[in-house]
Specification:
about 950 residues, Alpha-Beta Plaits, 5-stranded parallel beta sheet, alpha/beta, 7-stranded mixed beta sheet, Rossmann fold
Length: about 950
């Protein structure tokens, strides 16, 4: 199209919402309606100087040389669609997106990058909504028609984009203004990572995988290394995400070497822990059973049997769970759909420039080349060489990316000639006979051979890291002949530029990682240089040092930064410990345990190192730190709900005390008390939990390590409050807050404020309210939500008779508790909701109270007598202490009495029985609807 605008171009993408159903229900009416739809859009676009350059399904793509004209055209189109009488089809509602970018043409087609951004932006909007990108906003801010304004919708993560996009809605007084939240990645739970590069081609493969997930619940993407299985899986996950209420979750299995660690890895994604009498697999199944969720299992080929066994169990037990896996071969289980991932289509030898530009392989080459050389373009002069490169590399994406990164140093013709020589050698002179795994290996070899020796050795050594590393870690572990410490950074930067290392911004610092295929290549080279053992030992020693420094700093003012770094390094700690265990290095294993921050002090983190395998190493019982290892294992067992094992380990740890030094003895006793606190807390034995917390606090005082004190003091205070003895809680909570402020740790301060608010709620309500709000504000400033604190905060707000605040805290607490499957605490918060809405809607309050009762233990005895109406009081029996009654029990009694007065005994029973028949999803939906009617 010779009339397409170039230079700075504003693109408009549109699509009809709900058109698939309309085509199914009213095919004849839709044909006529679509003709009218197209005419209305064409007219608006043409009148404002735009050009339609593509028609896609039920939408169009248009280009404008002026951003204000593009906005006016889109508004006119929306106004025309909204005012048109549509008869049988009903109103046609189009979602529209506008993005401004470089309008570079290759032949008669635009380059894909700005088009991809515009398409992704349009896809998150709703029918009738017009949204624009951050690139459009400054161009139209002062040129909008009268009455039109831009509404800031904030930053959103969009599928296939490397960074969040700031999105604005164009609001016209004659068009709808209020829409649900954008359907971006942020709208759903999950941990899908932002992609650092665009997704090119694969439209057919994406469509096949999406369709497969609609038909079966286990889909495995197979193919050789480097063919793009992981990238395709993440793209598919983003595409199907709106169909999974509980989100899409990635479990990366490449760092897992132990077949017995598969369940742990998957459970770790969701922070699932086993309760007493459960295996971890049973706990995982229980957690996932009610979830409508996509689980992405990446790099499964080295763990096929244990992964297949787990997936089979999940498939049988979790009817709304879907699994999308990547592996070099399938699992071979019933119900699995295997989709082979082919290489990208490469252009023919005699293809013209337009044909080359339209091939997926060449598009990938051009985009990755532009990443290192912004002015690179596909031209009639270099198109043949680009096509040849893509063919010689058999369309293997990783190989193409490695070659494209070299355009900074040589042109495509030179690249093609060099590739020809290498591939002719590998194929024995028979062009086209290169197998795809040879193709990839040759491409990596070729890129590797072009590196200097120091760069080669640095790349090899980076393979010892799992999940990437920081520059500091790379310098500490990878330097040494022939890599000078001062050269690590420039060498690392050059490897990033050549697509051999991926740089990712983690906010606190940049992390550098190898793609799995490159990491395996580096491991082979390490073996060739006989460097594997010394590098892995150096890696482990580095994390001993890093762990010790982190433990010292974790509970001070730098908690946010240190906690972020620790979370990012979890895989490296696990790999270091695996090395110590595999080599029977008992001393290294215990030093790693001692250096790693203790889980109860991690607050918002849940990071663990395996302790029990260390206890079985040769010489472990004779090691001075053996009692510490027993105590760490006891805490882990207590947190996962294994009471018999936790008690056994506690007893064994204490039995070792006479043979250890005084400082280690304090650490061991403190860990034992921490484990027993967790065990008591798990069964609602608040009195014993408080006593163990007090004992732990006294041990900390004697050792002088104040950093541990606020956690124990606040925990003891909270348990005393739950037991109904707020007076006993006040001194502990007061001291805990004072120490937290002295340490300057923002998380400890927020936690301690909440604990003191609970202790003072009856004695000094005004001060308690101020403390609670300060805690809420502090947590909000940190962007931190802790389920226990939200739950306790809601209960404290109820004690303060502040129903709006109780509901404000109950809303996120309910969502967290429902997600985690913590039914007892969820029942408690639902009772708070019932109390808070009793005056406004007693009918709903009674139903919610009945639903909360159904969430308590099924085998709770049914009491008789005056309290028979409130049968939940029996379930609360463990929370009673000699000094009082749990305030949650008292709150339930109060709500019951009030509802009985308003509704009468018979109606109250009827409504509560109705609530008892509801499942957890229905209960949560009802409660949230009465807290906040907006989505």
């Amino acid at each position: 199209m010779s009339d397409l605008p170039t230079g700075t171009v504003t693109f408009l993408f549109t699509d009809l919402q709900g058109s698939t159903r309309l085509w199914e229900d009213e095919p004849d009416a839709m044909r006529a309606a679509m003709a009218r739809h197209d005419a209305l859009l064409d007219d608006a676009i043409t009148r404002h100087g735009g050009v339609v350059f593509s028609r896609m399904g039920d939408g169009i793509a248009a280009a404008f040389g002026s951003a204000p004209q593009a906005v006016e055209a889109a508004l006119d189109a929306q106004l025309a669609l909204s005012s048109e009488p549509w008869d049988a089809t009903g109103p046609l509602r189009a979602r529209m997106g506008l993005h401004t970018g470089a309008g570079a043409l290759v032949g008669d087609q635009y380059e894909s990058q700005p088009l991809n951004r515009c398409a992704r932006l349009m896809a998150v909007a709703h029918g009738g909504q017009l949204v624009v990108s951050e690139a459009v906003e400054p161009l139209v801010r002062g040129a909008l028609p009268d009455g039109v304004e831009l509404v800031d919708l904030g930053e959103h993560r969009l599928r296939d984009l490397a960074r969040p996009m700031h999105v604005f809605q164009v609001a016209h007084p004659a068009l709808p203004r209020d829409f649900p939240a954008l359907v971006s990645l942020d709208a759903f739970p999950g941990n899908l990572p932002l992609q650092v590069s665009s997704f090119v081609g694969r439209e057919r493969e994406v469509a096949r995988a999406v369709a497969a997930l609609e038909e079966v619940r286990v889909v495995t993407l197979t193919g050789v290394g480097g063919v793009g299985k992981t990238r395709l899986a993440l793209q598919v996950a983003g595409e199907v995400l709106p169909g999974f209420r509980d989100g899409a979750w990635l479990c990366e299995l490449a760092p897992v070497r132990d077949p017995n660690g598969v369940v742990d890895a998957v459970a770790g994604v969701f922070d699932v822990a086993a309760r007493s009498g459960q295996t971890l697999e049973q706990a995982l199944v229980e957690f996932l059973r009610g979830k409508q969720l996509l689980l992405v299992l990446d790099n499964c080929e080295h763990l096929l049997e244990p992964v297949a066994a787990l997936v089979a169990v999940l498939e049988r037990s979790c009817s709304r769970l879907a699994v999308l896996a990547t592996s070099r071969e399938g699992f071979g289980i019933d119900g699995e759909r295997i989709l082979a991932v082919p290489s990208l289509g490469a252009p023919a030898a005699d293809a013209e420039v337009n044909e080359v530009a339209s091939s997926a392989a060449a598009r990938l080459f051009v985009e990755r080349a532009q990443a290192v050389k912004a002015d690179f373009t596909l031209t009639p002069q270099n198109a043949s060489a680009v096509a040849q490169i893509c063919r010689r590399l058999d369309g293997v994406p990783l190989a193409i990316e490695l070659a494209a990164a070299r355009v900074l140093a040589m042109n495509p013709g030179e690249l093609a000639r060099r590739l020809d020589r290498r591939f002719e050698f590998l194929a024995g002179g028979r062009r086209g006979a290169v197998e795809r795994h040879q193709t990839l290996r040759a491409a990596i070899d070729w890129s590797y051979d072009l590196l200097t020796e120091p760069a080669q050795r640095l790349l090899d050594r980076l393979a010892v890291f799992a999940g990437g590393c920081t520059l500091d870690s790379a310098e500490a572990v990878c330097s040494g002949d022939p890599v000078d410490p001062g050269d690590v950074w420039p060498l690392l930067a050059s490897l990033v530029g050549q697509s051999l290392v991926v740089a990712e911004d983690h906010g606190v610092e940049t992390r550098y990682r190898l793609l799995e295929t490159i990491r395996q290549y580096g491991e082979e080279r390490l073996d060739e240089h006989a460097e594997t053992a010394p590098l892995r030992a150096r890696h482990a020693e580095h994390y001993v040092t890093f762990g010790g420094m982190s433990s010292d700093q974790l509970l001070g003012p730098q908690y946010v930064e240190i906690g972020t770094r620790l979370a990012a390094e979890e895989e490296n700690f696990v790999v270091a410990m695996s090395w110590a265990i595999d080599t029977n290095d008992v001393d290294l294993a215990f030093r790693l345990l001692r250096a790693f921050p203790i889980a109860p002090l991690q607050l918002g983190l849940r990071l663990w190192l395996p302790a029990e395998p260390v206890l079985s190493l040769p010489g472990a019982p004779e090691h001075p730190d053996y009692p510490y290892g027993l105590a760490i294992a006891a805490v882990r067992a207590a947190f996962r709900g294994d009471r018999p094992r936790a008690e056994e380990l506690c007893d064994q740890a204490l039995a070792c005390e006479p043979s250890i030094g005084p400082h280690l003895q304090v650490d061991v006793e403190w860990l034992v008390q921490t484990a027993r606190t967790a065990l008591a807390f798990a069964v609602g034995d608040w009195h014993d939990a408080a006593v163990h917390g007090e004992t732990a606090a006294e041990l900390v005082r004697s050792s002088g390590e104040l950093g541990r004190l606020p956690t124990n003091l606040s925990g003891a205070a909270a348990c005393h409050v739950m037991a109904g003895d707020a007076d006993a809680a006040v001194p502990f909570a007061t001291e805990g807050l004072a120490v937290a402020r002295q340490l300057g740790n923002p998380y400890l301060i927020a936690m301690s404020l909440s604990a003191l608010a609970g202790a003072l709620a009856d004695r000094d309500p005004a001060r308690a309210g101020a403390l609670l709000r300060e805690s809420i504000d502090s947590s909000a400033a940190l962007n931190y939500e802790n389920t226990n604190e939200l739950t306790q905060g809601a209960l404290v707000a109820a004690r303060l008779r502040d129903a709006p605040l109780a509901l404000q805290l109950a809303k996120p607490a309910i969502r967290h508790l429902h997600w985690s499957g913590d039914r007892p605490q969820l029942a408690g918060v639902l009772n708070v909701v019932a109390w808070a809405i009793t005056d406004a809607d007693p009918t709903a309050a009674a139903v919610i109270q009945g639903a909360a009762r159904a969430l308590t233990l099924a085998d709770t005895p049914t009491p008789t007598g005056p309290d028979s109406l409130d049968r939940e009081s029996a379930a609360a029996a463990p929370t009673r202490a000699a000094t009082g009654v749990s305030y949650l029990t008292a709150l339930r009694h109060e709500t019951t009495r009030h509802l009985n007065d308003v509704l009468g005994d018979a109606r109250l029973r009827e409504l509560r029985e109705q609530g008892e028949t509801m499942d957890a999803d229905q209960t949560v939906a009802l409660a949230l609807a009465h807290i906040d009617p907006t989505p």
